[in-house]
Batch of 4 targets.
Target 1
Amino acid sequence: MKKSIILLSFIFAIIGLSAQTTVEQANAAYSEGDFPKAAQLYEEALRENGESADVYYNLGNAYYRLNRVAPSILNYERALLLQPGDGDIRFNLEIAKLKAVDKIEPVGEFFLTEAYNSVKNAGSTNQWSYLSIAFFILLVAGLFLYFFSRKIGWKKIGFYSGLAFLILCFATATFAYSQKNKLTHRNTAIIFSATTTIKSSPDNSGTDLFILHEGTKVDVKDQLNDWKKIETADGNVGWIKSNELETI
């Protein structure tokens, strides 16, 4: 039994060392200016170890250096999905978008919705979850103070602080749920075709509606066979073949 545990520990250690080496090799290749090799190694690290905001970010940088617009934007978007509050990711994403052909102005949001999204995107799922747990503990402490303190002043402090922590606990839990929902239900994508014609129906005989180019971000609304119904940021809707875009 003891030998089996040691063997398993050794295997996991080797796997971890191999994964670390892959990322380090990719970083070294990037530093040396070998961007094709760096991109290949970052892709390999993601296949081996799953998603990582740092690896997606570095992969986006490598593709940007290779002047590959769609893959760079895709990986910056994936990194931002995992770490929505990271300013470096957001900045590089905006720089990469400058290389995209389509300059689509999004439909304006209600100012309260915009404020809500701005606050929500300041943290990731885990960060909001940890804050929610912390506020819940403080809520319990406030309730304890309210119910068990003998002094009116302390009871008031316990009541009002408990009420404040209840609101904060609910808000952060809502943010965590919303961010988690974005991760599990990914309905946005990046156009990968250099140029594609959006159709009015999910078939080649559909009417040509408008043209999109690589790097454009769209919302995926529906799917039928090998076609997807998409909506652009300015509200235009149409159908595109599934192999012409990549889900974020």
Target 2
Amino acid sequence: MVLVYSDNEKLTRELLAKGRELADALGKKVTAVVIGPGDAADEMIKFGADKVIVAEGGPETFKAEEYADILAGAIEEAGSNIVLIGSTKAGKELASRLGGKIGAGCIIDCNRVYLDSGELTVERVVYSGNAVSVERFNSEVKIATVPCKAFDPLEKDDGRSGEVEKKTYQVGEYASIVARVQEMVSQGVNVEDAQIIIAAGRGLKNREDLKMIEELAEVINGHTLGCSRPIAADLKWLSEDNWIGLSGHKVKPKLYIACGISGQIQHIAGMRDSSIIVAINKDADAPIFKSADYGIVGDLYKVVPRLIEELKKQ
């Protein structure tokens, strides 16, 4: 049995697609777990789940200890030996604690999950993106966390049927408490779902020059700006909502235009799955060109205005 859980609904659909693939290959079924209100339970059936367990009576806000108790109960009840959990901040904490609780192997941030000779095998980026580690489990229950955009969700099938079951699981008493929950202030940017991203890098000399990148985004009708780490983390010219990379957001747009980005592996790890990558850089030896489908060697202060001018003619 394959069990799927994430606190992110879109990521849950992506996990269900992979869970469905694994289950079909093994002749098993897919169970999805919802902790809290089960409003999305029927949707999970349509996106690949055979059964959805709605765990009621849990904590009102996320607590890894209680959530681990709930998932441990669901795993035992369903007889699951493959568990896929979304690699959100909460998901990674939950997966690690769950693995320790039930004695299961746990591998974090797997961007590939597949069967090799019938054995669950995963791959993940290590050493800041300089290598790929291929790993297997030696435990009966296997837990893998998967980040957003690693898999494409299945097409919604309104004709699929399945079982939705409401359950209450016993959770222990723990010393930790949630004292306060504060929502992160967002700039309204959602690079993870963007189809066209224009990304700015350290090749920009001044903050005001971002207006040039914004204008390029507007004429392409892709009003989403991205950036490399220095622009968001060091210079603070854009928010972390725009940051693309290993420590930022992972994206998978149809078109990614990198303006003045050198292409360090930490940035490439966040955008390598883009359908078409266009790089603009005056350094012909910049690493970004190794990942680009199209490369323009030139000063972005000359290339970008010329691109804007030509695009406006279309």
Target 3
Amino acid sequence: MNTIKIFLFIFALSFLSCEEVIDLELNEATPKLVIEASLNHFPQQGVTSFPKIKLSLTAPFFENEIPPVTTAEVTITDEEGTIFPIPHSENGSYIGDFEVQPNTTYTLQIIYEGEIYTATNQLVSAVPIEFVEQTDDAGFSGEDIELKAFFTDPAGAENYYFFEGLSEKGNIYDAISDEFFNGNLIFGYYLVEDIEPGDVVRFNLYGINEQNYNFIFTLLQQGDSPAGPFETQPATVRGNIVNETNPTNFPLGYFRISEAYTFTYTVQ
């Protein structure tokens, strides 16, 4: 028996002694500009959101940090030709000081390293979140808390929405189409681990157009939506922003203008 034990010990050591660290050499593509541009109009009294644009560069697969872009020239121009500069604030975030107006077309322009990126969009309407329904027997365990934020879709038109459920315990994102729910009550779904009574969840509902819907829907399908829609993706998803100077060097990201409603719920 002792002979067998010694043999097994020597056999195991032979595998350990053969360990070798392998460094993978991956091809690195030229970094692309990543643009997250949101203009939101909140009809609710006392809620204001100024234009915010986040710029960064794509990074190699094994990099832990995303390089921010801090040297771009960013402007938004309305249909009357009024130009609103969007200055850099910090860490790649550019924040404007004007409020988006309804029934107005806006053009985003970003100049970075001699190339011009543009996109044009209009405000897309949304509807208020009316109420939140809570159940306490959801999930695989049957003991998780599940929240549904309900809103009524307007009848007679194609509508698309970007839905967020945000809390300290985790975030949920979804792109919703009214294709099968036109004119009916729809809900956005929120279920994360460890949510418990007393936690506060903020629900945001944004009106988006079909192009933005297709972009966000595809992005979320590729990634793990609770981790955020702009984590590393297995394939390139192109948005609605073009490079006017060099079309082959297209950016990643989106430009959307949304009417938005917010609803805060405390878990019971």
Target 4
Amino acid sequence: MSVPAVALPGRLTLVSRVSAYVALTKPRIIELLLITTLPTMILAKGGLPDVWLMVATLLGGALAAGGANAINMYVDRDIDKLMHRTRNRPLVTGVIAPGNALAFAVTLEVVAFAELWAWVNLLSAVLAVSATLFYVFIYTLWLKRTSKQNIVIGGAAGAMPVLVGWAAVTDSLAWAPVVLFGVIFLWTPPHFWALAFKYKDDYEAASVPMMPVVATFRRTAMEIMAYTLAMVAMTFVLAPVAHLGLLYVVAAGVLGAGFIALAARLWVQETPKASMQLFSYSITYLTLLFVVMAVDVFITH
């Protein structure tokens, strides 16, 4: 009986190897970060910024986020092999050697800083790399394995792109991007804990103290509702601070009501299906909120 051949790392095609390195950067997460960056730039400008500035900012942000995600995979490779959701990542399967992955990640960060400094401004470069340092040292290396508040505090890294986008346009910061930072910061726990409900067994197997692992379902659902209500309230604070109009206010209300309704359903039903519905909606919510914000800018400014 013949044994199927195993594709060794050294025998990978160029496309497969490139795909593995791209996977290290977690492209789907980068997409979400960029979705918040561009509308923030439009808000900061009061219209459409220079095309080259948008391209340069998004490129630098993507490189910085990709480097941070790759470092996260490097650090977490020991627990990734214990979780069903992450067991096919390149460092777990051996497609990429750990040393190569770390070198790749650091290179992305260096290039990101240099690119943003050269083509955008120093403030945006510092903010982008600061987000990486926070994500790696505060979240990945410290909080993720030690505290049930890991994703709450660590979520600050994911909220940084709005500061980068604003700084790219104005070379300064103001209250509007700070409020946007608050919106994403408050959005992160409901978004991530909803996903963690489904993969509770994974996190438990890896001894990662995500809220659904260390707290009851009801307690976690209560926390999700509390953060959801605070997030929706923060979206309304943005309207007067950023001088947004009726379109944004109505959209924030409708989208927020949907988020609250799904959080309430999760509280009542306590099922993986309800949690994944909330998780999926949270992505749609953030995307539409920022898109409407950008559209409102063109109407009201």
